[in-house]
TrEMBL record:
It comes from Ruegeria conchae. GO terms for biological process: anaerobic respiration. GO terms for cellular component: periplasmic space. Heme c 1 binds at H66, C80, C83, H84. GO terms for molecular function: metal ion binding. Electron transfer subunit of the periplasmic nitrate reductase complex NapAB. Receives electrons from the membrane-anchored tetraheme c-type NapC protein and transfers these to NapA subunit, thus allowing electron flow between membrane and periplasm. Essential for periplasmic nitrate reduction with nitrate as the terminal electron acceptor. Keywords: Electron transport, Heme, Iron, Metal-binding, Periplasm, Signal, Transport. Binds 2 heme C groups per subunit. It comes from the Bacteria. It is found in: Periplasm. This is Periplasmic nitrate reductase, electron transfer subunit.
Length: 144
């Protein structure tokens, strides 16, 4: 009864080595166009578009009209809230967060931002004048 198991275990190393040799001979190409250990030259980064861009559909999260390159958003700090929290937005002349950001999962109102809405860049991204990464036929809503 133990013999078939031992024979099966003995086959594993040759099969693994054979698979490795096959993968290396297949000539796998990098998606970046360079070898894994070579630095890839990044194209010029798209510049942030200042001012507000129009939303493409109803309920689209607003785009961020300023750079957030050095913003810290982690478990301890959310720099977005230093301007956009309801307690500071007026004095900073910044848009206030939607009331939905102050509701917990059961719909109860909170005095601070809900944990489910704390990481702003889950939904909000900086505006950029960039070409689409893939072709698409999306049409913005008519506003109805």
């Amino acid at each position: 009864m133990k013999k078939p198991i031992l024979v099966g275990l003995a086959l594993i190393p040759p099969l693994l080595l054979g698979g490795l040799a096959l993968a290396q001979s297949a000539g796998v190409n990098s998606l970046r166009g360079v070898e894994v250990d070579e630095p890839a030259i990044v194209d010029q980064v798209h510049r942030t578009v200042e001012g507000r861009m129009q939303r493409n559909y109803r309920q689209q999260p607003p785009l961020i009209p300023h750079s957030i390159e050095q913003y810290q958003i982690d478990l301890r700090t959310n720099q977005c809230l230093s301007c956009h929290d309801w307690t500071k937005a007026g004095e900073r002349n910044a848009p206030t967060l939607s009331m939905t950001h102050y509701l917990d999962r059961e719909g109860r109102e909170l005095d601070q931002i809900a944990g489910t809405r704390y990481f702003c860049n889950q939904c909000h991204v900086p505006q950029a004048d960039a070409l689409p990464l893939v072709d698409n036929t999306f049409e913005p809503s008519s506003g109805n």
